[in-house]
């Protein structure tokens, strides 16, 4: 009898358990309003993180430019010292040749005067470029540097530094978001000075300008050109990263 009663109780308990509805649990946590609010907070946090990352990238890019400017300045000064040394050797050789010459000629000869004039012109060119570079690196007077590089380009169109001057002008204009003028300066480096060591960076900057102005097709073409023509360089690696971002 006891077994029958016990079995009946167990059966009734099981039936009650089956009949009672299980509590509904929101697997996402909270109601729809809470989920929307949580999603908005996640999006805002991501946007803030992206903004901070871009700020850090911009800072690092400026530091790289400063270091490049320092290296460029030192290399240029070294080249100018070597060039001046060569000119001095040439002048000494000319003087020695005149001394040993059988013909009687005045001491102040035309070749010596011409050599001095060429050295003066070179020094003026060097000083102009150095002044523009110092405005960027030392004084941080970027608007004045834009004018200085623009004047240098107009005054010394055949200078060996003309590609570098165009690149720096483009970079300064790019930093001011004057993308139209910056594109013109970078394009000059790409099309006119194909042997310049600034050409890869100029191509990369043209891609960045195209991307910032909404032309993703042109940006992709520039990035691919950097990878194709300047593989295994820092410019090519950055171009690859930008391409990945475009695909995403």
| CATH homologous superfamily title of one domain | Tetratricopeptide repeat domain
Shape: elongated
Distance between the ends: 74 Å
> Per CATH, what is the topology of one domain?
Serine Threonine Protein Phosphatase 5, Tetratricopeptide repeat
Rg (CA only) = 35 Å
The biggest beta sheet, please? Answer: none
What share of residues are in beta strands?
under 5%
Helix content: over 70%
Tell how many strands the DSSP assignment holds.
0
Helix and strand succession?
Answer: HHHHHHHHH
Count of helix runs: 9
If you average the pLDDT, what whole number results?
76
Any idea of the CATH class of one domain? Mainly Alpha
Low-confidence stretches: 1-6, 13-27, 100-121
Content-based structural category: mainly alpha
Q: What is the architecture of one domain at the second tier of CATH?
A: Alpha Horseshoe
